[in-house]
Description:
Layout: E1 3-6, E2 13-15, E3 41-44, E4 50-52, E5 70-73, E6 84-85, H1 92-103, H2 114-117, E7 119-145, E8 155-171, H3 178-184, E9 194-195, E10 203-204, H4 211-233, E11 240-268, E12 271-278, E13 285-287, H5 293-316
Amino acid sequence: MSVVGKCHRCATDLEDGDLRCSICGTIAPALDRVVGEVQRIVRCDECGAAVAHRAEDAMSPACRFCRAPTKIETPQNPMETAELMLPFVISSDRAVVAMRRFLGSLGFFRPSDLSRSASVDSVAAVWFAAWIFDARADVTWAADSDHGSGRSDWAPHAGRVKFDWRNVVVSASRGLARDEVHKLIPAYDLGQAAPIAGASGGQVESFDVERSAARQHVLDAIHTIAAEQLKQHHIPGSRFRKVNVSALLEGLTTRRFALPAYVFVYRYEGRPYRAIVHGQNDAVTFGTAPLAWGKIVLTVLAVPAVIAAVIAAIALTR
Length: 318
């Protein structure tokens, strides 16, 4: 984070690239600040992921995230880049082993030769984009729960809580889906963060939304996190509905991170699938895989026969 001044209304720190104050919404006075340099980027036609275009690329390469076609763009507005990055701990060879181990662990309804027969089309070491924020908030809430409901199903409750969050990760990636990022995030060691200084052997995803728009993503995440923590620790009862949260921010700082992962595109019987291996913990490996439809059909056909046999056995015992 680079602080460039303070809001003239509430004295909140203004970060490089802020168009409005993150607390009170007042327009920042220095709107002519430049965040980074206007640069050419490579944009995926399929998932929308963007990375910086490199001079050695004679033409736009396939997307590192999904292998779809890409195109070269020159955005009118500067693209933000990560300030901090985490290193890869897992080597590419170890990632391949983890990917095949994952394919071999998917159970009966997957092809029995999947791990052996899958051919790797590509493996890309990527750093995907994420915001990491610290925030303080005064949260008021109202909700219905089963606590104290008596003969009714629900009873109303309300309250007020102070929250102080540290190192909360919010995905800014377009190359990885939200559920994929949620699987990756818990296993990162943010203590290993270092200033970004080139990404040897991989590519860093760009932040293709302005900081003012990024704030809205973070604010949405704050409301979601607050609602979950309220249900876990503050709202009485075990069942909830109509959980309404209002967060008054008292402080918010964000940092732009690049987080490491391997993205595999592999083929089985000619069809492409994707697998992702965590860049720091290869126990976190997941992806898409084909189904063994023959096994599924045989199982479905066998169920009526098994039921009939059980009924016949019961009848013989009477």
